[in-house]
């Protein structure tokens, strides 16, 4: 896909009262090495497509996710929420959709109340919060022999102006190959966000199709939506294919 530029704006979610946070948006200044879309059909009939490129967003790990020292599968860090297991499958769209082993996958996202670790003075539903020095809901893994990086986390909450999402980056041989974001079915997000631990915040009024990152392309949105199985009581799980061009 081609990278797009968006005006940096501020948005207030009507259901969130005073919640006001600058939205993560596509940014023409983001450093990316893989911004074109390629779809490949392998010799065994498997199809893979380059994951759309998105902005890193305003809350990466302090100093950049590449400096993140947290090599860990469980990134929960004591945060409460509906359990979420996400397996990232990294494939090379330029090599017959073969899996990429040893790729570094970084993820980070907000907690159930819409705040990120590592940052001060974040406005939100619960007022301005500072989580400097905290590292929850952040981490990285290297893909295994099957091309998988398997994370345990919680279902993200949301903050004003953005659909519910998780940030991710892929490095191969220490070179940044993909910056993107993923989202979820609104049916599942809505069910989670009215459940006990999330109920104070409630349903996210920003729909995926209206989101500043996901809403510009229905094709990209389909590639950025993680299919999940499970329930609020049992937790959810899914596998997200990250297509990179190497």
UniProtKB/TrEMBL annotation:
InterPro entries: Intradiol_dOase_C, Intradiol_dOase_core. Residues 27-55 are annotated as: Disordered. Pfam families: Dioxygenase_C. Residues 29-55 have a biased composition (Low complexity). SUPFAM superfamilies: Aromatic compound dioxygenase. Residues 56-169 form the Intradiol ring-cleavage dioxygenases domain. PANTHER family: INTRADIOL RING-CLEAVAGE DIOXYGENASES DOMAIN-CONTAINING PROTEIN-RELATED, PTHR34315. This is Protocatechuate 3,4-dioxygenase beta subunit. It comes from Mucilaginibacter lappiensis.
């Amino acid at each position: 896909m081609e990278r797009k530029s968006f005006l940096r704006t501020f948005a207030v979610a009507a259901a969130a009262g005073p919640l006001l946070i600058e939205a993560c948006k596509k940014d023409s200044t983001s450093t990316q090495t893989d911004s074109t879309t390629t779809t490949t059909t392998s010799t065994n009939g498997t199809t893979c497509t380059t994951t759309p490129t998105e902005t890193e967003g305003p809350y990466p790990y302090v100093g950049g996710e590449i400096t993140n020292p947290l090599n860990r599968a469980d990134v929960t860090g004591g945060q409460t929420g509906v359990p979420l297991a996400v397996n990232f499958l990294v494939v090379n769209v330029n090599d017959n959709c073969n899996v990429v082993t040893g790729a570094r996958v970084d993820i980070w996202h907000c907690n159930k109340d819409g705040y990120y670790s590592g940052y001060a003075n974040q406005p939100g539903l619960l007022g301005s919060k500072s989580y400097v020095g905290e590292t929850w809901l952040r981490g990285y893994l290297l893909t295994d022999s099957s091309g998988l990086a398997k994370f345990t986390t919680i279902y993200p909450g949301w903050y004003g102006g953005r659909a519910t999402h998780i940030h991710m980056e892929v490095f191969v041989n220490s070179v940044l190959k993909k910056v993107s974001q993923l989202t979820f079915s609104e049916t599942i997000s809505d069910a989670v966000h009215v459940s006990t631990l999330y109920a104070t915040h409630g349903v996210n009024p920003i729909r995926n199709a209206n989101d500043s990152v996901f809403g510009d392309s229905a094709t990209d949105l389909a590639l950025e939506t993680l299919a999940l199985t499970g329930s609020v009581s049992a937790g959810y799980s899914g596998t997200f294919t990250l297509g990179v061009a190497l």
